[in-house]
Batch of 2 targets.
Target 1
Amino acid sequence: MSPRVVVLTGAGISAESGVPTFRDAGGLWEGHRVEDVATPEAFEREPDSVQRFYDARRRAVAAAIPNPAHLALARLERELGDRLLLVTQNIDDLHERAGSRRVVHMHGELSSALCAACGTRGAAAGDLDEWPPCPACGERMLRPDVVWFGEMPYELDVIEQALVGCDVFVAIGTSGAVYPAAGFVLIAAEYGARTLELNLAESEITPLFDETRLGPASVLVTEWVDELV
Ligand SMILES: [Zn+2]
């Protein structure tokens, strides 16, 4: 019987496709401070500039292409089927474009819009700074469907259930600085999973893993999937 696996991916895997991360340039994201673009307060204060920021991110991601790490994880899904849960902190769609079908976007998705009036989530058709009407209720209150600091991540119940039941937990390209994702390794370990970290450099939570391998995700993830299947 193949193992039950939970994979958590973070900004490091997308960085190898050229998608900028918060960790670049000392915590700035394309020159913006996190608190100016990734909090509900920033959106209340300056909605148009926050919309333009995410509109630009959406276009940048559309121009990026999946790298070998994304492709390896899609191959792993084809081997393991529903014994794999792929959880990502990333808001891009590089996993999907690599061929992964079951992806939990715990921090939301750039390709989705969330209606602040009625709560409907749906595909973001084009730029949101033009304030298109919500397809469900008609209000012009669509915001990026991304989880900002201070907001509750998506599908934590699904993720926790998978962590409790998994044999192997692997964190790829995560900083270990953002909770609750940084605590997933503890849940998995408590319930008996082997834990592995694949990262470019040691993270804040490296000591919590059974094993850490350092290097580019495109190399390490491909090697690990080869070992497993
Ligand atoms: Zn609506």
Target 2
Amino acid sequence: MLDRKDILPEPELPKGVELVSEGQGQARDWQVGPSAFLTHTGHRSEAEFKRARAASARIMQHAQMGFRDAGKSRRAYAEIYERCRQQGATVDRYGISLDWSMGYPAERRDTRFAGTGLVLNGPEDFAELARMAPVAAHFGDFVLGFPAAVENTRAALSAGSTSIGNLGQFFTFRLPGWDDDVATARATVTALALIAAQKTEVLVHSNLDDGFAALFTDTACSLGAVLIEKHIIEDLIGAPLSHCYGHHFTDPMKRLAFHLALGRVSDTPGTMVYGNTMAYRRDAAGNFASLASYLLTDIIGQMAAPTGHAINPVPVTENVRIPDIDEIVDAQCFASRLIEHAGGLLPAFSLEAATAIADILVREGRRFRDRVLAGLEGAGIDLNDPFEMLLAIRRIGSRRLEELYGPGRKDEARPRGRAPAVASPTLDEIEELAHSALAEITSETRGHIAGAGLSALIATMDVHEHSKLLVEQVFGELGVTIIDGGVSVDADDLAAMAAETGADVIALSTYNGVALEFAQALLGEVEKAEIHVPLLIGGRLNQIPRNSNSSLPVEVEDELVEAGAVVCRNIADAALALAKLAQEGSTAREPRRP
Ligand code: B12
């Protein structure tokens, strides 16, 4: 059972109604400004444009862009549109990949761990970008859901953006060194109210995969999350909410079913369907097959039940690093041609099976919403206060919500103690990866590790959690004791945990293009704590060099080795390192724990 005193223990918290009124007040000074897109299309908002396009059965295209260098980003904004146009493809909207350092208020912006994205300093920078081509600018990541939500939303509005934010990130993302989730929730509610108070229709965007969908084991919970968010954003704050999904929707049938289900529970036009980036595991040729597979599913979905979502052809280099301009153009032209090829294909598809799954998603998603709302009310959370609702849900987290209120029947053998109504493929995929990783480890290596009594502190320094789950599973099977080092953890906290727990090794995943800076900071903290603990590091081991003019990250594996870390390209590398440690341990030291 949940209890308010465990979730919101603070004696005084801001009142949602006051934050909403503050946001509404700001709408007097901050309104939707002009943009090349609105002028060119003659529509008042992207939502209006989307409705018109969907009514005429035109499938729209989304491109994700935003390089660290602002000049390159402006050039890309114009060039991608123009080069696609010359090849007969239309890019309708850009998702702008802002850097995670944009989440801090400008005066407290922490650039120590600047990632791979774009940093814009104030409204004029936003507007200058959106002026470069008649493409709808969607300022999404690191806008809503962060301490800088209000200032970023104002800037996006004044640049003529009418799809804003990524509310999904509010629920799961944490900025390095930032612990004040009350300030984050306060800024988010105020910014949402500012959006709601616009005279022009402005869509609040929420990417479910950035939120809880990446971690729910039941896809019905993801549909339930849509309904809960709609209650908070549409019913309580009054802004139209538009959902995006896709990264983790690997099974084509369930992907199509989710599209049909979403269309049934929402009549707000969708922003975009995200690419199935989890499927990108190979080289370009293999990834093109994944691209074709999910795009065709999304195209058929839009033909069968238009929702206004743009399709999103993700460049095939996505699993290596952030893609460059040529790669984005190629993917857009590929998608445009695929739409042409798919022209007469719809009658060849029977939607019966997908519709049957959609029925379950809608029914069980509603059940999840009802159970969560009843549970929150029972715990003493005010269901009519958007601030309390958002903060409470963030603090409870996806795991607990699913364990307590998931619609699936109880089954202690399953990861959340429930048999999912519609199983999400993500955890199954991680399990498969774990099995194949284990199969690669020789019995000799296993023998060394087993029985050595090793313990590993396993963590990630950003939101990417799948590798952590994978490493935990494999290490566990190898007989290593697992210590949870957390997600989005800071270097000093992790070193302190290593000292406190006496872990034999730290196993860290890092993906956000800050591998070297973070490893150096962590190793510095480990030294300060006067402990000797090896660091195994994996993920995307890259970083944008400080003097780079390409805005693309480069690999830093050699530098990491030089700094003293053990680079793990895969799990097998880690197994060898553990075996070595076990052997050294058996000769050089006594076991540290009973
Ligand atoms: C899933 C995903 C997400 C999900 C994460 C969901 C979750 N809760 O885990 C979501 C959608 C939330 C997300 C968000 C972001 N993402 Co992301 N994401 C990915 C994606 C698609 C897959 C990564 C993954 O989990 N793979 C599964 C694991 C199991 O496989 P793997 O990565 O190959 O790992 C293997 C090895 O590396 C090794 N390994 C990994 N770690 C470790 C650790 C140890 C100790 C060991 C031994 C081994 C090991 O084991 C694995 C098996 O061999 C990649 C692209 C891709 N296709 O790879 C981008 C990617 C990693 N993301 C990226 C970015 C930029 C982001 C965002 C900043 C985007 C944004 N603007 O919001 C945010 C992060 C914000 C934050 N606060 O941290 C970039 C990183 C760019 C770079 N460094 O060059 C990538 C490469 C996409 C891209 N091209 O832009 N992301």
